[in-house]
Design brief:
The chain is built from 12 helices and 14 strands. By secondary structure, it is α/β, with parallel strands linked by helices. The protein has a 7-stranded parallel sheet, with helices on both faces.
Length: 309
């Protein structure tokens, strides 16, 4: 039996690293959002997959949380000289991954096969599973029209107000078969503290995914991305205000609804312990150090095990 962890980018990858220290390669598999994927400069870019890959490989940029730590930027400088698009930064070493992924996909490999190849090459033993091998694209609705996710998130730096989201292709996409295999003998499902609207919802929107998670006998626990009414990383709290919902941990739990069996609150929100419609536990969820990541992973696994008894 193994655990299944659903994750997006930076926030989720922090907890995923802790889980990888606590659980062995056969004991946990990571399901990663690919709604952020897009085509750029002729390349297939998978930001959340890459963030987790570099994190588990020990090669991530500790300052930004994304990209490689041992990076240089000569390609971007040369592209700027030519008047090319430079709003999405691709480092020289990072570029190799996108080129190889694009080449393999064009040759007929699935995104899962590409990810497995990259993980093996970078020495990652844990399983990283794209949510689907079929394309799903997150679309952001704003008062001025729709934006692709990366245009909203990176080019426009989350400045536009959001009014809603669509996940193009999710209705036709199939869950990664590897996910369904894990669910056949699963000990617990953990939703990492990623943005519920644009990191977790795309995963749940894949046809049959939510039903598969709900019908699995394993307990489902979400770790709150909101601490003291603030998002630890990214635009989660801003989005919640613009969607006219309270930016609270409780609201995140309500957003996931009947999917959850438990919700892990930060110590700052301990007053909400026992007041939610699902079982709650409290732990320090602000992850600054590796020790913080490991401690939160242990707390999340212990909570899942308690609920599964």
């Amino acid at each position: 039996m193994s655990y299944l962890a659903l994750t997006g980018g930076i926030g989720g990858a922090k907890l995923a690293l802790g889980l990888a220290h606590v659980l062995g390669p056969t004991e946990v598999a990571f399901v990663v959002n690919t709604g952020d994927d897009f085509e750029h400069l002729g390349l297939h870019i998978s930001p959340d997959l890459d963030t987790l890959t570099y994190t588990l490989a020990g090669r991530s940029n500790a300052d930004t949380g994304w990209g490689r730590g041992d990076e240089s930027w000569h390609f971007m400088a040369a592209l700027e000289e030519l008047g090319g698009e430079t709003w999405f930064q691709l480092g020289d070493r990072d570029l190799a991954l996108h080129v190889e992924r694009t080449r393999m996909l064009a040759a007929g490999a699935t995104l899962t096969e590409v990810t497995r190849h990259v993980c093996a090459a970078l020495g990652i033993a844990h399983r990283i599973l794209p949510m689907s091998d079929d394309p799903v694209r997150t679309i952001v609705h704003t008062p001025d029209g729709v934006l692709s996710f990366q245009h909203y998130f990176v080019r426009d730096r989350c400045r536009p107000a959001v009014t809603g989201f669509d996940f193009q292709g999710a209705g036709e996409a199939a869950p990664n078969p590897g996910i369904l295999k894990v669910l056949e003998d699963c000990r617990g499902i953990l939703i990492c503290p990623s943005n519920p609207f644009v990191s977790v919802d795309p995963i749940l929107a894949v046809s049959g995914m939510r039903a598969a998670l709900e019908t699995c006998s394993a307990p489902v626990v979400a770790v709150s991305p909101i601490v003291g009414d603030r998002a630890i990383k990214g635009p989660t709290a801003k989005m919640m205000r613009e969607l006219d919902v309270p930016s609270t941990a409780r609201q995140v739990a309500l957003h996931y609804g009947d999917l959850l069996d438990g919700f892990l609150l930060d110590e700052q929100d301990a007053a909400q312990h026992g007041t939610l419609p699902v079982a709650t536990a409290v732990a320090q969820s602000v992850m600054v150090s590796l020790e913080d990541r490991i401690a939160l992973a242990r707390a999340a696994v212990a909570f899942l095990d308690d609920l599964g008894r």
